[in-house]
Amino acid sequence: MTTLSSPGALRHLFHLPDGVVYLDGNSLGPLPLSAPAATDKMMRDQWGEMLIGGWNKAGWMDMPGALGDRIAPLIGAPTGSVVLGDTLSIKVYQALAAALAMRPDRKTVLSDSGNFPTDLYMAQGLIDHLDQGHALTVVQPENVAGAIDETIGVVMLTHVDYRTGRMHDMAAITQAAHAAGAVVIWDLAHSAGAVALDLAGCEAEFAIGCTYKYLNGGPGAPAFIYVRPDLHETIEPALAGWLGHKAPFAFDLDYAPGHGIQRMRVGTPPVIQMAALSAALDAWDGVSQADMRAQSIVLSEAFIAGVEALGSEAVLASPRDPALRGSHVSFHHPQGYAVMQALIAEGVIGDFRAPDMMRFGFAPLYNTLDDIEAAVSALGRILETESWNAPEFMARKAVT
Ligand SMILES: *Cc1c(COP(=O)(O)O)cnc(C)c1O
Fold it and tell me: Is 209 helix (H, G, I), strand (E, B) or coil?
């Protein structure tokens, strides 16, 4: 059993460039040191030598479920309930379509303004396409519980707000939704690998998330979808691709959904990317959710205390109570964009979220208290000297 006895105790498993303090693992996790060799081996020994035989001999076809089983313990889900594939945006669509079909007489989807835009765009696109009179209601995050009533068919929320780190009470909201007869979808993009999760315990019907943030699967790594096991044989996967069919290689002209979570697969899985993800998941072997969460809180508390002690214009945008936030912390600052660019120029990598938030992600596996100290002192220097006030830091880049 690996114990994460201090923040960053598994830093030796990752490549973190010299001179860099990486506080953006909530957006793109760093390179696991074992990933290049794992992908190289997959390409040479499997793709290179086995050619099409790799689908059987190297187990490529089973990887979406096998990797799902390795993600399951990180989200509190049982074996056989999680499968990989596609991108998170696609999984939002797929989960919502299946959820709407479970409540045909209810027409309202409830979400909140703390959701990531793609989730809302996908929901609106699906609703428009269905053209069955559905509507998307978006309320303030603190008003979600009060907005749940018997008109709501589906409650679709992102657990940890991508900007502020504010975290919904997953158990309480799921319970309230179920009491009103609604189906629940949790987006775990900023939760998986960051906060302790108990999907089985909360009994939510669906959960989705990505693997390139805290799970370190690399840019473009596939998304995951969880479906509560009692629904596996009855849900309708709206994206009826051939690899979700019960017998893909029978090449039937008619679709028949596969068994278990397999029916949520769509098409050919990204095998090279999954080889990288598999290496990345090794880092989590034996890491307890309780240790992960405890070290995450040590980091975020130290950062908030450090930044506030600077006595600057930066104002905490995240909940102060660690029980109410995930593993990233944001500060408002009127010059947030330029200040973040100045930080990045000094090797402290966080990011910026409009209109004025500097966001810092803390990954308990590899971020250390030294990272926090270095980030706080760089921020202090930049604010003190106003070195952010330079043309090269003011010009907006395409990816912020
Ligand atoms: C990161 C993130 C996404 C990204 O979706 P992709 O399809 O993987 O680009 C979607 N939703 C949330 C809540 C996110 O945080």
Answer: strand
